[in-house]
Design goal:
By secondary structure, this protein is of the alpha+beta class. The chain has 4 helices and 10 strands, in the order αββαββββαββββα. It has one domain.
Length: 153
């Protein structure tokens, strides 16, 4: 499920360093040693908007630079997390749609994006929301891969 969320979220455009976002002091391209100084015990259990993570992680590229940050939380707390994100990033754009589960029940999906920052109410399942950041190089690589897959017919 998380792979699907990452692939879906990687449809953003390139962001220049001047526009770089940060969450809890973490920015894309940050060195692993800087992150370890901030979070010697890791990012598990961090909070956003007073909401604890159900699961949080950081992925690094081959040069030990932050390539992605993921913060998963109970989707029932989505609007609290969204309020915190909108306070910090008031220009973030949100789109509402309807999603359906396997039993046919419909739910209001909310996806918010600004540059490398992505907030999703339902991330693969209706009980889990996510706040993610992806490096511009990861976004570009995923776009290239998606383009290649789309032409494989």
């Amino acid at each position: 499920m998380k792979t699907f969320v990452i692939a879906a979220a990687l449809v953003a455009s390139f962001v220049s360093p001047a526009q770089a976002q940060e969450v809890k002091g973490i920015t894309m391209g940050m060195d692993r040693t800087e992150v370890e100084k901030l979070y010697p015990q890791g990012v598990e259990g961090i909070t956003v908007g007073g909401i604890s993570s159900a699961y949080a992680s950081i992925a690094y590229d081959g040069n030990d630079k932050v390539e992605s940050f993921s913060f998963f939380f109970d989707s029932g707390d989505f609007f609290k997390v969204m309020d915190a994100v909108k306070t910090k990033y008031p220009k973030i754009k949100c789109v509402t749609s309807t999603v359906q589960n396997g039993y046919g029940a419909s739910f209001e999906q909310v996806k918010c994006d600004q540059g490398t920052l992505h907030l999703t109410r339902f991330s693969g399942k209706i009980t889990e929301g996510s706040l993610m950041m992806f490096s511009p190089s990861l976004i570009a690589g995923q776009a290239k891969l998606n383009s290649k897959k789309a032409s494989d017919i």
